[in-house]
Design goal:
Layout (H helix, E strand, L loop, with lengths): L3 H13 L1 H37 L5 E6 L17 E2 H10 L4 E17 L2 E10 L3 H4 L3 E5 L4 H5 L4 E5 H8 L8 E4 L2 E10 L4 H4 L1 E5 H7 L5 E2 L1 E6 L5 H22 L10 E5 H44 L1 H9 L4 H34 L15 H27 L3 H6 L2
Parallel strand pairs: 4-9, 6-8
Antiparallel strand pairs: 1-11, 1-12, 2-10, 3-4, 3-7, 3-11, 5-8, 6-9, 7-8
């Protein structure tokens, strides 16, 4: 039931102690405000990292080779390890049950691509049809490389969206002929990539076509796979790591490389990296919650302290109330109502200030590691509700003390 007189008393008490009430409310509001900002930036960090991993398949295993650094079985260090089609086929056959998508890649950096007088330098990649799924690329128009293109070594090309903008100036490139180092290719598709311009400046052609057109023989520069995911994330990581290590040892065995030579064969496992990063994000989020919660606790303690002071200042008044018949429950309700009111108002001010600031700065914060920091409003609202409950608990101790004041002692109080 709404009690107008009780509310008048509360506002009268607040009016007599404006500065004290303001400072207490400020500590509560700042606690919620800080927590909202910290959670927002935690979310932004998570989005930034997730975007980085979305550039390629999260469960990707990449293999490339360099120069040996150790002598082994009579062979000197300094040998460049050249992978070939046979390496790709051997890995595919051995781990077929564990691999989802697979491709061998022959790439040429800075390939000169020409279309009707327009020229640009882009990365050429001879690849298999699975490259689209491994790269997490989407077709803006046309199609990607097909198995028929591979089998017939067709001179077709799939270009990135940036190349379309640079060379075709808004014209539909599907069916047009581009020249790569003087070799003509028919454009059959345009792709986009979550990695943006850096990943869209490539030309994909069938691997056999690239090897024939550019005199590569059966050489490949790298291998890329995605590993079939287990239902449990930790199991998937363990399985992916085991396959990565086995592939590395297989390549070393095929090319007579010392097992402990860490430079000759390089294997990158994005799933293992993802686990490390997401674990770090979870730790950061926990630290942010820890800081925010203790800031809020400081505010709640402030509410409890101000209510104790109010009870002390109103001891004589409370004694008179009890002497004329006021019940302990009504006194407790009065003190609790004031504590909850201060906590709720301050909490919602902090909430809306924090959410408002995040909405304001969110479009301005967009880099590789933090993207659009925002907080889930329901989470923030639930935090305020918990804060109000905590405020009620904080107010209960002084309220209970007020309810147990003996009228005769209160009337003697100076």
């Amino acid at each position: 039931m709404f009690d107008l007189e009780r509310w008048q008393e509360i506002f009268e008490t607040i009016g007599k102690n404006k500065l004290r009430t303001f400072l207490t409310g400020l500590s509560v509001a700042s606690g919620i405000f800080i927590l909202v900002i910290l959670l927002g930036f935690s979310s932004g960090i998570q989005k930034g990292v997730k975007t980085q991993f979305e550039q390629d398949a999260t469960n990707r295993v990449s293999v490339w080779t360099r120069v040996t650094t150790k002598s082994y079985k009579g062979l000197n260090p300094g040998r460049y390890i050249q992978m070939r089609n046979s390496d790709f086929e051997a890995i595919n056959n051995k781990y077929e049950a564990n691999l989802e998508y697979k491709t061998a890649i022959y790439n040429i950096w800075g390939s000169q691509v020409t279309y009707k007088g327009e020229t640009g330098n882009y990365r050429l990649e001879g690849a298999n049809p699975d490259q689209q799924l491994i790269e997490n690329a989407s077709m803006a128009s046309g199609r990607f490389i097909s198995q028929d293109d591979m089998d017939e070594s067709r001179k077709i090309a799939v270009i990135g969206y940036i190349i379309q903008k640079d060379l075709f100036k808004g014209k539909d490139p599907i069916g047009e002929i581009i020249s790569i180092f003087g070799v003509n290719f028919k454009v059959v598709g345009v792709y986009t990539d979550p990695g943006g311009e850096r990943e869209e400046g490539r030309v994909f052609v069938p691997l056999p076509t690239a090897q024939i057109a550019f005199a590569a023989g059966d050489r490949v520069r790298s291998l890329a796979y995605t590993v079939k995911m287990a239902e449990n994330f930790d199991e998937a990581v363990a399985q992916s790591v085991a396959i990565s290590e086995n592939i590395e040892q297989d390549i070393k065995a095929r090319h007579t490389i010392a097992p402990d030579d860490r430079s000759a064969v390089n294997v990158n496992n994005t799933l293992e990296e993802a686990k490390k990063i997401y674990s770090l994000i979870a730790i950061i989020r926990s630290v942010f919650w820890f800081i925010g919660i203790f800031t809020i606790i400081a505010g709640v303690v402030g509410v409890s302290n101000i209510m104790l002071i109010i009870v002390k200042e109103r001891t004589k008044e409370i004694g008179i109330r009890k002497a004329i018949g006021a019940l302990p429950g009504s006194i407790i309700a009065l003190i609790l109502q004031e504590a909850i009111f201060i906590t709720a108002v301050a909490g919602f001010i902090g909430l809306f200030a924090g959410v408002g600031l995040l909405q304001l700065i969110s479009p301005m914060v967009d880099n590789d590691f933090i993207k659009s920091p925002q907080v889930d409003f329901n989470t923030a609202l639930a935090t305020v509700v918990i804060l109000i409950v905590a405020g009620a608990v904080a107010g209960y101790i002084p309220a209970r003390r007020a309810a147990h004041i003996k009228p005769i002692d209160a009337l003697r109080d100076e």
